[in-house]
Specification:
rod-shaped
């Protein structure tokens, strides 16, 4: 009697359900990802820094705007869509919901990046320093002219200080006046009313002004933008891109006519939704009155 050979059972092949593409799986994962949230601007900056640095240079341009306004509008927009997050994957399957919910933290990172930039000295600061030091410059220089006539100080030195005009020249005068007082200190000891602190202030403020002011006739070389400013621009790009997505979601949820009231433009100075509603009701009541 011959033995019957038992064939091995066929292995079941695991098939991917039809219509469930890799992109759909990726979108589902993105929609269910846990968003990063924080109230610590420095922590937010550290978290998103690698993402900002990874942006292609050609995609990043010089940005500007009030980052505090951007942060306020981002928070307001995210708060508006938060109750409707379950609807977003159905309305816009390609939108990563967790990235929208991270926007407030990302805007905080932008705020921190902006704060790391050394701000240029303003004209107002320069004028304030000149105004503060001006009277002392005039008094000390006039005194030197008097003692120069008395032969205690070389006239040509004092005359050279007095020559010239303008902000930069006045700043140099302060340095030269303080220097001359130090040179002839033994000769003028006990003969003038100016303290060492006043003369030090002349030298200090004059030096700061000379380093800050630029000669009007000089050709200013094109300066490279600080690294901190370029990083700030990259954070602006991240915020702008995600906020565009937030606005798209706002249109889908609230309609194009109402989106600004719920998800305002990034740098708009708009009223709150409550104030906007009150204005709309007031305008409606006025039009219905006889």
């Amino acid at each position: 009697m011959s033995k019957t050979t038992k064939l091995p059972a066929a292995r079941a092949t695991k098939r991917t359900p039809l219509g469930k593409s890799a992109a759909a799986v990726k979108n589902k994962k993105a929609a269910s990802a846990t968003p990063f949230t924080t109230d610590d601007a420095a922590a937010a900056y550290a978290y998103f820094l690698l993402l900002a640095e990874a942006l292609p240079p050609e995609d990043v341009t010089m940005r500007g705007g009030d980052v505090s306004i951007a942060l306020t509008n981002v928070r307001r927009g995210v708060d508006a869509i938060r109750p409707h997050v379950a609807q977003i994957p159905k309305l816009l399957p390609k939108v990563a919901v967790h990235e929208l919910l991270e926007l407030p933290a990302l805007a905080l990172a932008l705020l921190h990046a902006d704060g790391r930039i050394t701000k240029a000295t303003s004209t107002r600061e320069i004028d304030a320093a000149l105004t503060r030091i001006g009277p002392l410059r005039d008094l000390t220089l006039t005194y030197l002219e008097i003692v120069a006539e008395l032969g205690l100080v070389a006239k040509d030195r004092v005359r050279a200080i007095r020559t010239g005009k303008g902000k930069l020249d006045n700043a140099r005068d302060c340095i030269d006046i303080a220097g001359l007082f130090r040179e002839v200190a033994p000769t003028l000891a006990g003969k003038h009313p100016f303290s060492d602190e006043q003369l030090d202030e002349l030298a200090k403020t004059g030096t700061w002004l000379v380093q800050t002011l630029k000669p009007a006739s000089s050709t200013r070389a094109k300066r490279a933008r600080p690294a901190a400013a370029m990083i700030r621009d990259r954070f602006w790009k991240l915020v702008e891109d995600r906020h565009d997505q937030l606005r798209t979601v706002g249109v889908a949820l609230f309609g194009i006519r109402n989106v600004d009231a719920h998800v305002p433009p990034l740098l708009s100075r708009t009223s709150t939704p409550k104030a906007a509603d009150e204005q709309e009701r007031g305008a409606s009541s006025e039009t219905t009155q006889p």
